[in-house]
Amino acid sequence: MIDTVRSRAAELLKSGEVSVVVGYREGRRRELAVPHFVRDVADVDALVLDPFCSGGLAVFATREAVSQGAAFVATPQDIRSLRVLVQEGQITSENVRIIGFACQAPGNPAGEIRLLEGSRLEDFDNVIECAADNNIAAEVARIMAMPPEERWRFWRAEFDKCVRCYACRAACPMCYCAECIADRNLPQWIETTARPRGNFAWNLIRAWHLAGRCTLCGACERACSEGIKLTLLNAMLAAEVRDAFDYVAGFGCADEAGVFASFKDSDKEEFLIDG
Amino acid sequence: MKVLEKSRMRDLLAAIMAAGSRLVAPVEREGSHRFAWVDSAAEVRLPDITCDNTIKEFFFPRAERLLTYKRAANRVDITAPAVSEAPFVVFGCRPCDAAALDIVDRVFNWDSPDKTWNARREAATVVTIACSRADEYCFCTSVGLAPDSRTGSDVILLPLESGDFAVETVTDKGRAFVEKYAASLSDQKDTAAKIASVPQKADATAAAKWLKANFDSGLYADASERCLGCGICTYYCPTCHCFDIQDEADGLSGARLKAWDSCSFALFTKHTSGHNPRADRPSRWRQRIMHKFSYYPDLFGVISCTGCGRCGRMCPVDLGVLETLTAIPGEDT
Ligand code: SF4
Ligand code: SF4
Ligand code: SF4
Ligand code: SF4
Fold it and tell me: Across residues A201-224, what is the average pLDDT?
């Protein structure tokens, strides 16, 4: 299988379709394959593919050196993330190629991997698999069943851990803003020190800005140095968006505007008009 | 020689707290070892390398109040918190943690002594455990330290084959500590300590020469290509000490805070004009490397890295300074 990945990488580079393949190479420890940029055909042998290739490489797609033509060794979530980036006008699908794979148990050494058919983003209109989604749905239900005060305490305890390293933002494909609202200081919108009030504001704003855009790739939570349950928060917003607008980020047609960048007659308006 | 028997470690910790001293020691939280304030000796769990976080936060908190203010009619009342610290013991940090205190002492006593850092340093007794194990990220021996370095410690515990620890005093403060808690220690014949062997992975002193001569090297762009630009390698580094000053208001009152900051952030060097002298990732990565291995040694005579390995271990993309050090031409050993 890795041979297929390497030969496809080599083909894409040789044909000039892309100038870089963003994949994985072995890291210092088994549990973490590291992002690797292959620009030279001779280097494709460094690429690896195992259950520790955890996804999230779409974060590099908006970098100037990559956006000009790159192939991504991509999970289904990564493919969806790239589709959102196309939707939002950050990259053009012309410049993107996919070497897709899905692992049925990511992070588990025994997790089975299979390669996905297709090469261009349009080839993945029906990529709907998402291993983590079911587990997280149960967790969302558990949190939503809590009385509001308990839920408040739960999140308060989570956000109190935050050190404001912004690794969640740095690892997120959709956090591409040239200037994040958390960095605005004229005026300052979000307090920057790692104290409860600013931490709450930061974590909520981060999640809100990803509603309808987050593909639940999990890169933020894996990067978080304090193990804050970011995927859970993201999944709660994703569930709201799905219930209100029947929309899931990255599934729709890549040319169609995102849920918060478009208006349909069928959009619910209970929050505007009573009943 | 004084020995701390493994089975009596919790007695010692309980005695420290019973004597009215506060205690920082490793605990376990959601699968991660953390240095934390502990209320009971039973909470303490020693990891076999070091903890994920550093002990710097007990000396240089992630956000600390410098003053509080309150606006009244025609005036502003300002209150500065008193700089005084009750004694505390840091137990179970590693030589790479303790050595960092000695490194940071220098910058916080450079032009204007940092009162709160110094007060906490004064108040703390540092009881370090030498390492009997190292992982693939450890590289203390590449920066002139060792798994049993004494720098920054008041007492060092040397692990013995039996699991007990030989107790060695390093400073006067350490001697006082050992005398005070003698009842929790026993006497044993000299036994050989079991210290980890940490291979030398780079030569930081030689690297410093190359760094100075190659400021414009393309190495930084290559080395930082996969870097995400987060604050993890700064906030979990025991020697990183940069901070920001922020005012946070609640209506007409508020506080001025000193809070951690990181050279990995674009905002760190952004001028009011909008110009940013470190506008891209490679120049920010260069700053990180140069500060630790060139500027700091020039200014203070020590490398600002203890080889603890956290910048690799905690990094979401397994980067860290060691990879760059070993990529310096001709400097890998
Ligand atoms: S918010 Fe987290 S899970 Fe969602 S797209 Fe960004 S990194 Fe992925
Ligand atoms: S990665 Fe975690 S600790 Fe860092 S800013 Fe994000 S939520 Fe906070
Ligand atoms: S080296 Fe790693 S920890 Fe440091 S800024 Fe880059 S991604 Fe974050
Ligand atoms: S630079 Fe890395 S290895 Fe050196 S002291 Fe800091 S975290 Fe530890």
Answer: 95
